[in-house]
Write a structure and sequence with these properties.
By secondary structure, the chain is α+β, with helices and mostly antiparallel strands. The chain is built from 21 helices and 44 strands. About 13% of the residues have low confidence.
């Protein structure tokens, strides 16, 4: 801050961005999974803090020593040690409410204290009804008969719902004889114990093992009260003085009503649930539809049942936890069991979701399926309820190809950006392991913190998380489009073309549309958001109250767009309702975005196109709506562009670029993320005129961004155009200040002036390139010593001989060290720049190899204002580079490029040292993933 004047808004925001407060730190899951001791707990916390990690989630985990009974004074004393140290460092702690998961049973103690609190389910017993009548199957101890019904089967797995006969008691069923033909069957619906378990924290308590703790009845408020007494009250009694300051939240993890490994064929249930489900539209005679196809009412019955289950779970489990947390000065956080259960996040002061098991992945599914909605699930739940933060438990078991430690920094960066651009603003990395001894390293791997190869440079990652979390906190996204959703269904199909055409949207829950939206001037207003368009997918699913609210919105001038189910025109409504997934989407048509505005329908063309255009599946469900349109998914971008409902327009278009526009502190920020595998180069027109800066959250740089056409309207938005260059795995932020005039491209001046944006589709303009093929000296690092080799030229082989001992971790896992601790290694072929897994004895080596070489520069090459670029080519996986003994930086993903090393070189001979660390999967999983410096290594002058 300048001493002689006040700090401007831009200066303040920039200062906070570059050095975000600790509250924006990641909060990693910290696996407590071994014999814990106070000294090691404190040491690890200080290690976290040194890497910019200012908080953690204490997570009891499989491998915990049996000498530390869960929730005992010994255990709680260790928790207190961690909290006291965190308090000393002004760090934050989130407590975890289970050992291990799913939440709700206090590691089986709820059921131990009262066996009636064990998880329950509903089972169906089917008996074909013959001429001799029916006899009930005897019930086991603890079971309760809920209903006895006779139904006529129409096919395997299908029944005639109109044939259902509900008997008052078993006696009436025993004398029943069906009239007419057909195959009749008798059904008993029985409430029973599910036999479900949770994963425990001690050996022998995992899935399928005899010691696995019993799951509790989460639909029973008395069981929840016991859970709170055993768990929450125990923590509070020990840590009361830290609640609301150091301890900020309690994490509840994917509660599972039936528990894990439960008896097959059950549906979630509890005592008295049939009566509870009645007001949700679920009737006793619909019970068969939970197991059989039952005509056109099947989906309706299942939806009513599902809503009743969720309502009961919220009432009996989530709300009591939420109330307890609120009364004790902390927040309820965590996530429900499914990626799209947005309604259950109502109870969370800090709503969350998780991205695990590669539910989505780079280069794979990231826009399709229910899991593709999880980022928006938590962020939209938060923004519409004025929750300041939302959390994601990320990276858990996101390994590739069934190789437990095969998870790279490249993928970590992709996942981070995927979450941030969707509005997530608190990351809980899964996980930092207290110990990776023995089998612990293989329990939901990998460690993404202290036991990863990234840890020496983890501050780069934690700082990036802080900056991006800061950006997405206390800001309002500029989405003008809402996609209507149910409490347990977030339509992903209409979201695909919006993502691919950089049209921002938010999911708006049906319940919030009815209860919390105000309609004024063609806008739906809720919290800080304002929507001009509401997209309705599968309108037949929504309640009459919802349809009335949509009509009211349309009457104020708002636009309702319904999605035409094109496949439904060719099949019956009944068949349509039986589909579990929507048909494949037609590709979005980018050409529609580049057409002139006159070629797209204008606002008037959207008016009056409502019920007469609806397909049979939708006609009459929404009713007569003013300002409605019925379109296919692929037509959405053109329809929305007619209303100018975007904040950014790219040229050329790219389906891989995601954009989020947020207002913060009087400024407008445009976040661009490249989710693809190729670089992007083009221009972006913004919807703002004014001064622009380009901020890079990874590099920690800011600078004036010259604009191409201040006030131009070539792309239809009327704002400035900026050049955009995004490598794969890159993100960039444009900060716009509408109170100041823009600066023309090429006229930037002063500190922070950005370098010219390169054309990434072509090689940079160069005078010449040096390719470093030969003369490599190679050393395999072993506990500070190494295996040394030399290669005089590209034609010579590299021979490596041992001068040290292998690191313990690599040696114990690789199995390639001889009995005498010696190994002979050679690098075959014409060039040493090949994967070191091709070298004899290095097939399963995990560690670091140092490559050293030289290159010569002429005086004219090293002088003046020349830009000198270093490109390492292909590397696996982490590269640390020194030029002439000075550290040039570290790279974790392609492109392994250094934009300008001119400040490090000199005329004559220059030394280059590249230290490459490969994946730990080679040692820990006996994989042979590509490893090392593969090149080609080039130095370019331009």
């Amino acid at each position: 801050m300048m001493a002689d004047r006040d700090e401007t808004v831009l200066e303040r925001e920039k200062r906070q961005f570059l050095k975000p407060d600790d509250e924006f730190s990641p909060m990693p899951f910290w696996f407590w999974n071994d014999a814990l001791n106070d000294a090691e707990i404190v040491r690890q916390i200080r290690d976290f803090y040194s890497k910019g990690v200012a908080g953690f989630v204490i997570h009891p985990r499989l491998g915990l020593s049996e000498s530390i009974p869960y929730l005992s004074e010994i255990y709680l004393g260790l928790v207190e040690t961690a909290v006291v140290e965190a308090d000393r460092l002004d760090m934050k702690v989130i407590l975890y409410d289970e050992a291990m998961y799913p939440s709700g049973s206090a590691m089986g103690m709820v059921v131990r204290d009262d066996p009636a609190h064990a998880s329950r389910g509903l089972r169906m017993i089917e008996q074909p009804l013959g001429t001799t009548g029916w006899q009930a199957v005897p019930l086991a101890e603890g079971e309760t008969l809920v209903s006895v019904q006779a139904v006529r089967k129409t096919a395997a797995g299908s029944v005639d719902p109109d044939s259902a006969i509900v008997f008052e008691d078993e006696r009436a069923a025993q004398v029943f004889r069906p009239q007419g033909g057909g195959e009749w069957t008798m059904l008993q619906f029985v409430e029973t114990y599910s036999g479900g378990k949770i994963r425990g924290v001690y050996w022998g308590q995992d899935d399928g093992e005899p010691g696995a703790p019993a799951a509790a009845d989460l639909l029973n408020p008395q069981a929840t009260a016991s859970f709170i007494r055993l768990t929450h009250e125990a923590y509070y009694a020990k840590l009361k003085r830290y609640f609301g300051n150091t301890v900020i939240a309690m994490f509840t993890d994917e509660p599972n009503i039936l528990g894990r490994s439960h008896r097959s064929g059950l549906k979630p249930w509890t005592s008295g649930f049939l009566d509870y489900a009645g007001p949700f539209g679920f009737k006793e005679e619909q019970l068969p539809a939970l197991w059989f196809e039952a005509g056109s009412g099947t989906e309706r019955a299942r939806a009513a049942y599902g809503k009743a289950v969720n309502a009961r779970l919220a009432e009996s489990f989530y709300r009591p936890l939420s109330v307890w947390c609120d009364e004790h000065g902390i927040q309820l956080t965590g996530h429900p069991g499914h990626s799209d259960e947005i309604g259950l996040l109502e109870a969370f002061q800090l709503p969350g979701q998780d991205i695990v098991w590669r539910y989505i992945e780079p280069g794979g599914q990231s826009l399709t399926g229910a899991h593709s909605t999880l980022g928006k699930c938590s962020s939209d739940a938060a923004r519409h309820r004025r929750r300041r933060r939302n959390l994601n438990e990320c990276f858990g078991a996101c390994f590739k190809d069934d190789i437990g430690w095969n998870f790279t920094a490249d993928e970590m960066k992709w996942y981070m950006d995927w979450l941030f651009v969707r509005g997530v603003n608190l990351l809980a990395p899964h996980a930092f392991y207290y110990s990776i001894a023995e089998e612990r390293k293989h329990e939901r791997p990998p460690d993404v913190g202290p036991n990863s190869i990234l840890w020496p440079h983890y501050a780069l990652f934690s700082t990036y998380m802080r900056r991006m979390s800061w950006l997405m906190t206390d800001s309002v996204n500029e989405a003008k489009v809402a996609i209507l959703c149910e409490e347990d269904r977030l339509p992903w199909e209409p979201a695909v073309p919006l993502y691919e055409n950089q049209i921002e949207f938010n999911y708006l829950e049906e319940q919030l549309l009815v209860s919390s939206c105000e309609f004024r001037g063609g806008q739906a207003l809720i919290a800080e958001q304002s929507y001009a368009v509401i997209i309705v997918d599968r309108p037949e699913r929504y309640l009459e109250d919802t349809r009335e609210r949509l009509r009211a919105f349309a009457q104020t001038g708002g636009i309702v767009v319904t999605i035409r189910d094109e496949a439904a025109d060719e099949r019956s409504v009944a068949d349509s309702l039986r589909q579990d997934a929507s048909p494949s989407l037609p590709d979005a048509d980018p050409s529609r975005l580049d057409s002139s505005e006159s070629s797209a329908p204008d606002g008037d063309a959207l008016r009056g196109a409502a019920e007469s255009s609806l397909p049979d599946t939708g006609r009459g469900r929404i009713g007569e709506l003013d300002n409605a349109a019925v379109v296919s998914v692929s037509e959405l971008p053109a329809i929305l562009d007619a209303r100018r409902l975007r904040s950014v327009k790219l040229h050329p278009v790219s389906p891989d670029i995601r954009v989020s526009t947020v207002r913060r502190g009087g400024l407008t920020f445009y976040l661009f993320v490249n989710e693809g595998e190729a670089a992007y180069a083009g221009t972006a027109q913004l919807d703002t005129n004014g001064f622009v800066e380009r901020w890079d959250a990874w590099e920690g740089t800011t600078g004036v961004q010259g604009v191409l056409e201040p006030g131009g309207a070539a792309l239809g938005l009327g704002g400035v155009c900026v050049p955009v260059a995004l490598e794969r795995r890159a993100s960039v932020i444009y900060c716009a200040d509408a109170t100041r005039p823009p600066v023309r491209l090429g006229e930037e001046a002063g500190p922070g002036r950005p370098e010219a944006v390169p054309d990434l589709e072509q090689a940079p303009m160069q005078e010449r390139t040096i390719r470093i093929d030969g003369g490599w000296d190679i050393r395999v690092e072993l506990e500070g010593r190494g295996l040394e080799a030399s290669a005089a030229s590209a034609q010579g082989a590299a021979t490596l001989q041992q001068v040290g001992a292998r690191p313990e971790a690599a040696a114990s896992e690789a199995g390639s060290v001889g009995s005498g601790g010696e190994v002979s290694i050679s690098a075959p072929g014409s060039s040493p720049l090949v994967s070191w897994t091709e070298w004899s004895g290095m097939e399963h080596f995990s560690g670091a190899v140092v490559y050293e070489s030289e290159f010569r520069l002429e005086p004219e090459d090293a002088g003046g204002n020349r830009v000198i670029r270093l490109d390492l080519g292909d590397v696996h996986e982490m590269a640390e580079v020194d030029v002439n003994g000075t550290f040039a930086g570290v790279r974790f993903w392609k492109p392994y490029r250094y934009a300008d090393i001119s400040g490090l070189v000199r005329p004559g001979v220059n030394t280059l040292r590249i230290r490459v660390t490969n994946s730990l999967a080679n040692a820990y999983n006996r994989a042979s993933l590509p490893s090392g410096l593969l090149g080609p290594v080039t130095v370019s002058f331009g």
